[in-house]
Amino acid sequence: MWRVFEDFVTTVLAHRLEDRGGTATSQAKGTYLDTGAKIALRPDLLWHDGVHCKAVIDAKYKRTKLANYPNADIYQMLAYCMRFGLEAGHLVYAKGEDEPRIHEIIGHTAYIHCHAIDLNQHPSVLLRQMSQLADKIAAQH
Q: Which residue, among 12, 68, 18, has the nearest Cα to 76 in the 3D structure?
């Protein structure tokens, strides 16, 4: 089910963000966190203008209160933000027990936005949620 959620989020957001200009790339390969190219990065979705990354998005279909979540997700997104020089990153979860939130990172000018998509909606309402999410992401860049 996680793959279906990830594919849905990245496909719909890619189209919605491209409608606002730029290009969206899913599962971009060939990007590394370190100069030795040992620590590969593969975010679910990058939105860019050809030169600069405008936004990084990762979809997460899991319960956020289990084990190390969302800490591991936050660390992963912080690495993406640092690598791409972004002040904001976006984690998209299936709506569960947690409400959407924003984490302000100490020592770095980064905000990690945790969004929740309610999958128990009519498809038209679900697509509207995705458009609203794309609006929020685009408004920050």
A: 68
Domains and CATH numbers, the chain: 2-139 (3.40.1350.10)
Digit-coded pLDDT (tens) for 66-81: 545 568 899 999 999 9
**pLDDT computed for residue 108 by the predictor:** 85
Of the candidates 59, 105, 56, 112, the residue with the CA atom closest to the CA atom of residue 83: 56
Average pLDDT of the segment spanning 7-36? 93
Where helices occur in 1-141 by DSSP H, the ranges are 2-18, 71-84, 123-139
pTM assigned to the model: 0.90
Q: Which of 129, 100, 137 is nearest to 116 (CA)?
A: 100
Give how far the C-alpha of residue 89 lies from the chain's centroid of Cα atoms, to the nearest Å.
6
